[in-house]
Amino acid sequence: ISLATNGANSVIHFYSGTLATKSTTIADDQPFVVGNGFSPATLNLQGNGLHTFNNGLTISALGTLSGSGTISGDVTVASGGTATSGTLAPGNSIGTIIFSNSPTLQGSVVMEISKTGTTLTNDLLKVMAPLTYGGTLAVSDLGPDALTVGDRFQLFSASNYDGGFVAISLPSPG
Fold first, then answer.
1. Cis omega before residue 90 (within 30°)?
2. CB 62 within 8 Å of CB 54
3. SS (H, E, C) 29-90
4. What's the rounded Cα separation, in Å, for the pair 56 and 80?
5. Are the beta carbons of 117 and 143 closer than 8 angstroms?
6. What pLDDT, on the 0 to 100 scale, is given for residue 85?
7. Pairing verdict, β 119-122 and 108-116
8. Rounded to whole angstroms, how far apart are CA atoms 119 and 61?
9. How far apart are CA 69 and CA 47, in angstroms?
10. pLDDT number for residue 174
11. From CA 109, how far away is CA 24, in angstroms rounded?
12. Whole-angstrom Cα distance, residue 45 to residue 28?
């Protein structure tokens, strides 16, 4: 548990390493920032908990948001070029992140899918508001069985959809 209090002067940034949390409440006057472009930083949501960011959450250069849980507050996955942009990667394998607000997707979204016999599973971004696509999307197949034409995976769930990804990478058969 971490508590930082300094009133209006409170600023909490996480620039390096991995921060694993089952429940989060950040109520300072600035967005909580993960990543700084120099060292990898990962915010890993665990146990499907509630994570509240009163003034937002920014995943910036070399930052990653992973795991499963519900996020209350504005979320921005920032661009910075393909090698350094922020990354949104639900699950620690297959998982779901639920957003109360529409996330701003400018960086990388990394999703995983899996097929075992006739059972299909996948990461999911569920948005309780409209979703505007942006940035890049990379989908990887965890297997163990090969994908076939006609296999379908719902990666996103929202009240409505807009925009598009600037680049999409899919596993075979695409």
1. no
2. no
3. CCCEEECCCCCCEEEEEEEEEEEEECCCEEECCCEEEEEEEEEECCEEECCCCCCCCCEEEE
4. 19
5. no
6. 85
7. antiparallel
8. 36
9. 7
10. 66
11. 22
12. 20
The answer to pTM > 0.85 is: yes
CB contact at 8 A, 15 and 63: no
Cα angle 68-58-55, degrees, rounded to a multiple of 5? 95
Per-residue pLDDT of the chain (174 residues; tens, 9 = 90+): 444 555 566 677 888 999 999 999 888 788 999 998 888 999 999 999 999 999 999 999 899 999 999 999 999 999 876 567 899 999 988 999 999 999 999 999 999 999 999 999 999 999 999 999 999 999 999 999 999 999 999 999 999 999 999 999 999 886
Burial 24-60 (b: 16+ CB within 10 A, else e): bebebeebbbbbbbeeebbbbbeeeeebebeebbbbb
